[in-house]
Amino acid sequence: MRRLWLVGVVIACLIIPATIIASETVEELKEKIIEIQNKGKLGFRNFTRCDNIITYGSYVPAADNKVQAGSKLLFYYEPANVFTNRRNDTFQIWYTQDLIVKDAEGEELLNSPELLNFNYQTVAPVLDLYATNSLDLGDLPPGKYEFIAVLHDKLKKASATMSYVFEIVPAEEEVSGKQ
User: Fold this and answer.
1) Helices then strands, each counted (H, E), the chain
2) Chain centroid offset of residue 162 CA
């Protein structure tokens, strides 16, 4: 029995420090990631028009840039290198996103400043972010258009722009015999 107790103590002495070291290493790596992101250029990663968005990194990309009249545009992206402010024991991220739509002649049809406003404070750093945009095309006529997303990092005082040209095509005609 004494031998079993001694083996348990030895195992505990090996496991507990290894867990503490692993935990410290993870925290150190998170700090390094924050430093790299804070120094990096603000931008968009994986900016994709989608047919469906499930969650972070999980989405169904659209086959092309053509959309039916009266339907919806759906976009997925990951803000890259958003600044993380560390104050005391908290971490803050704050970015906004504007949405602009232009027609083929460059005339602004929609300008929604700060359509998205993400201001988040937490006790643990957030390293992976994603955002979605949904735009109901309403009664826009067939033609070419440009979707523009402008990301503003409020803490880094930086902006980045992403543009996507799409074409609205007439809605499919109903199958004959069905009204």
Assistant:
1) 1, 10
2) 13
Residue 2 has pLDDT above 80, yes or no: no
pLDDT in tens, 60-113: 999 999 999 999 999 999 999 999 999 988 999 999 999 999 999 999 999 999
**Alpha-carbon span 111 to 104, nearest angstrom:** 16
Q: Is 9 helix (H, G, I), strand (E, B) or coil?
A: helix
Contacts 24+ apart (CB under 8 A), 103-108: 103/143, 103/144, 103/145, 103/146, 104/143, 104/144, 104/145, 106/146
> DSSP letters along 165-179, please?
EEEEEPPPPPPTT--
Residues 6+ apart with CB under 8 A from 166: 49, 65, 66, 67, 73, 144, 145, 146, 147
